[in-house]
Amino acid sequence: MTHSPTTGLDAGRLDRLDAHLRAYVDDGRLPGFHVQVNRHGQVAHSTAYGRRDMATDAPITPDTLYRIYSMTKPITTVAAMMLYERAALDLSEPVSKYVPAFEDVRVYVGGPAPAPVTRPATEPIRIKHLMTHTAGLTYGFHRVHVTDEILRGCIDEFAPPAGTDLAKACDLYAQVPLRFDPGTSWNYSVATDVLGRVVEVVSGQSLDDFFRDHILGPLEMSDTAFHAVDVDRLATLYGLGPDGIVPLDQIGRAARSQPAILSGGGGLVSSMADYTRFTDLLLHGGRLGDVRLLSDRTVSFMTRNHLPGGADLDEFGIPLFAETPFRGVGFGLGFSVTIDPVRAALASSAGEFGWGGMASTYFWVDPAEDMTIVFMTQVMPSSAYPVRSELKQLVYSALVE
């Protein structure tokens, strides 16, 4: 554990954070964790505890690698906004300009999955719809709507058809009727995977090459890739079983080698040090040291609430699973954004933004408090425990200056 006494965070109250998280490990709900709080340019608090593999008793170490899943989404959105800053991409452009399969999208109106009834969409899916999850696309794992079932019939997230790369996957996504007309609601979806394909088409590079050349390389994020750069450091993936957490070897082994589909929505593996560098970049308006990826104005634009009329997700979204609460929380370009801490029932800050991953990883950035928080572990699903809201309660209660 490390702690800096000059960052306005009370050491005794941060001990409560550690004790609370350690209880999750000690009673078997989590294999281990690493939590880090940065404030005023310093590591205010960092604790790694527990095991990255329970069978071998290998400990969580500062350089442990984690499947960050949907924490890939903000990186993909930053990539797209870098192209936007070059005027190579317009947020109002139809996605079909870059992925022609989305030319004539249709909206589901009824019928079973094998024979859905559809109608033409009232407007095309636009780039901004992908960034805000308002495209009408979905995820197969939602399992609550016919469009989810149709998507599962086209492509399984964990075992895509042989020979399916990102381009082919997006063509399959385009065959699925939309849940709603673009721009009329919010639904967590494969939209950021499609955005990753747009980055490929516009840049002329594969997504992994674009990330390496323009984001990961400049930021010295050498541990971050679409597979584990060192499998010996990769944490085992766990899931909930009838008697505790169990290893998910079939799903987990995918991170050991380069995938066929470069998923901009959930494909990266990273480390605490690497992802903290990314969050520090966001906190400082697109700049980290001498490296600038985005302008301050662009980052400010991305981290505003882009939902129509200033609505929150509770008002505008479909109340399904997402990596964030719905009340008091809006959505920007690639991030959830807290717009009303009172409505969210958390003593956080208006304007703080972040996102999480399917294996319970999480981060948020609070410009008002000059603070970033990253939490790493490896348990699916991320809705298994209320760790994310508890993290905010414990971190903000330690702010005493």
From TrEMBL:
Gene3D superfamilies named in the record: DD-peptidase/beta-lactamase superfamily (3.40.710.10)
InterPro entries: Beta-lactam-related, Beta-lactam/transpept-like, Diverse_Enzym_Activities
Boundaries of every Beta-lactamase-related domain copy: 17-385
Pfam families associated with the record: Beta-lactamase (PF00144)
PANTHER family reported in the protein's UniProt record: BETA-LACTAMASE FAMILY PROTEIN (AFU_ORTHOLOGUE AFUA_5G07500), BETA-LACTAMASE-RELATED
Protein name per UniProt: Beta-lactamase family protein
Organism: Leekyejoonella antrihumi
Source organism phylogeny: Bacteria, Bacillati, Actinomycetota, Actinomycetes, Micrococcales
